[in-house]
Amino acid sequence: MIVFDYTSVVFAAGLIVGLTLDSLLLRTLLAPPFRIWPTPAPGSWQSLTFWGLFRGGMVLTFVVAVLDWNATPLLDWTRFIVGVPLGLGGLFITVCGYFNLGLGNTYCGSDGLVSHGLYRFSRNPQYTASIVGLIGLSIGANSILTIVLSCVMIGAYVLMSLVEEDWLKQHYGTSYREYCERTARFLDVQGLILAIVDRKKPSRQAG
Predict the structure, then answer these.
(1) What is the C-alpha to C-alpha distance for residues 172 and 156, in angstroms, rounded to an integer?
(2) Rounded to two decimals, what is the model's pTM?
(3) Strand, coil or helix: 55
(4) pLDDT score at 200
(5) CA dihedral for 143, 61, 137, 126, sign (positive or negative)
(6) Which residue ranges run through the membrane (predicted)?
(7) Which of 9, 105, 122, 151 has its CA 20 to 30 A from that of 157?
């Protein structure tokens, strides 16, 4: 007889929600014109379905991390040295990305192509930061169940970035294609390092 505890039930729900989201995103990528993301319009079945699954998957991942905290002794306390900075840093950059991109564009609007700020170094800085945050959560939680759900949600972020590209090309055409050519999909590490180094150099005043 199989006995399910509360953590197992929440994990199973998160897995079903996350895999359903991944499946719909994969169909969007491979079988257009079906499209679950970016959503056609607020209040549409696509919008309600996508946001319900996405938010549900993220919430359930965090709930499992709390319920199953330190259940699998993969790492000792030193995991927090890596996990906490990744988790908090990912959250901070994600929030900054909302201000950089604008609320309208974040929620599938077409308020203009954004290529400044964080978007100089990544075409998807919010997704990249959220992936980093999920990795930090998995390290900190020390839980196999959290790692599994985090991987499922990371898969959703990757698929979201892929399915957005055709949609953005339709809206912004040549300007977006040129932006893609000069900007990494997830992170331009070299460009970011050079920008940090340049900022640290003392400014020279003309004599």
Answers:
(1) 24
(2) 0.86
(3) helix
(4) 62
(5) positive
(6) 9-30, 50-68, 80-101, 127-160
(7) 9
HSE (CB half, 13 Å, CA atoms) of 159?
Answer: 24
Distance (Å, whole) CA 94 – CA 116: 15
Calpha distance 2→207 (Å, rounded): 80
pLDDT along the chain (207 residues), means of 10: 77 98 97 90 91 97 96 87 93 79 57 76 91 96 96 97 90 88 84 66 50
Asked whether 121 and 188 are in contact (CB, 8 A), the reply is: yes
Token couple for 11: 């994990």
Cis ω before 42 (30° cut-off from 0): no
Residue 205, pLDDT score? 47
Q: How many angstroms separate the CA atoms of 42 and 51, rounded?
A: 10
The contacts found for 167-173 with CB under 8 angstroms, 24 or more apart, are 167/35, 167/38, 168/113, 171/110, 172/110, 172/113
Question: Measured in whole angstroms, how far is the alpha carbon of residue 147 from the centre of its chain?
Answer: 15
Distance, CA of 36 to chain centre: 16
Q: Where are the domains of the chain?
A: 6-199
Q: Could you give the CA distance from residue 19 to residue 14 in angstroms, rounded to a whole number?
A: 8
Helix axis angle for 144-182 and 6-30, nearest 10°, is 20
d(CA 154, CA 142): 17
